[in-house]
Amino acid sequence: MLKRLAIALACLLLLGAGAAAFAWQELLARIEAPHSGIAAAGVFVEIEPGDSVAAIAGRLVRAGIVADEWTFRFAARHSGRDRHLKAGEYFFDAPVSPLAAVAKIADGRVHLRPITFPEGLTLPAMAAVVEAKGLGSAEEFAAAAARTALIADLDPAATDLEGYLFPETYSLPRHATVDDLVTAMVAQFRAVFDADLRARAAARGLSVREVVTLASIIQRETGSGAEHALVSAVFNNRLRIGMPLQSDPTVIYALEQAGMYDGNLTRTNMRVDSPYNTYRYGGLPPGPIAAPGRDVLQAALDPADVTYLYFVSRNDGTHAFADTLREHNRNVREFQVEYFRRPRTGR
User: pLDDT, tens digit, for every residue of 216-240?
Assistant: First the structure.
């Protein structure tokens, strides 16, 4: 009898162990299986600071991301990341398993919208980018870009943030405002134009505004990184001897400010009476004419060791440089007169 009881008990234990093992495997399968309750358009879930695992689980269930709260809580505990779930807004656009949802939130992979500003944009051009991306209206951006208090310690004379909104790609939360964006762009400018660059500017007797203004002209003159220091040398050499900068982009900027630029620069345009017209007024214009990038800011302070005073476009994205007006005139004839007289192929 005892022997039969022992055998029966052993069988029950084996059955219980088998059932427990089966149940455990079922649990593991559930937390690894994607749940198909997400809407086709995707869904946003906002995790608030201080939310418990249970609260997060509830948000995910209501959004259709996981089937039930208990499964998510088990997945968080089983993964060992239940104490590392991060606040933020998350976007789910495809079915995920509870474990994958835990990983996404624990990693802090919040939903961000990228917006890219190429180097050399003016404030109105940046405003157009912002409006096109749906981050705000051009008018809202213009108002945010008038917050000179953000840069007053570096440039007390600034009347807007032209030149101080650093051109780069920014990743923003869905509810970020244009004020948030502008604040981030000024912060990035400060990070790039750091104490070292400010000290080098002071050593050259230049204010931050003067360096950014010079850099913005260099930026608009050439898109070739290899030429930044050369163009910087031309303008630094001209400033040193009191020669006008005679930069076309400054005239274009003056015309744009007056609403007079139609894409063509004429002889009449070149006579526009504006302090930004460096053909009529010597020295640097009153302020930046665009947003210079990192390399150009450095080039403004580190011009190439050359004596060039002139340059002209080769019509291929590069320029021909010259020391003398005679040499420059030869370059103008070759690249601006004869070039356009030659028959064009491939048309």
Answer: 999 999 989 999 999 999 999 999 9
The alpha carbon torsion through 47, 48, 51, 56 (nearest 10 deg) reads -20
Amino acid letter, residue 123 = L
- E-only strand ranges, the chain: 43-47, 88-92, 113-116, 169-172, 310-313, 319-322
Which H or E element spans position 271? none
104: left (phi over 0), alpha (psi -120 to 50) or beta: alpha
Nearest to 94 by CA among 173, 34, 29, 30: 34
Identity of the residue numbered 100: A
Nearest residue to 129 (alpha-carbon basis) of 90, 186, 174, 182? 182
Q: Report which DSSP code applies to 149.
A: G
Going along the chain from its start, the domains and CATH numbers come out as 31-107 (3.30.1490.480), 112-192 (no CATH)
Specify the pTM: 0.82
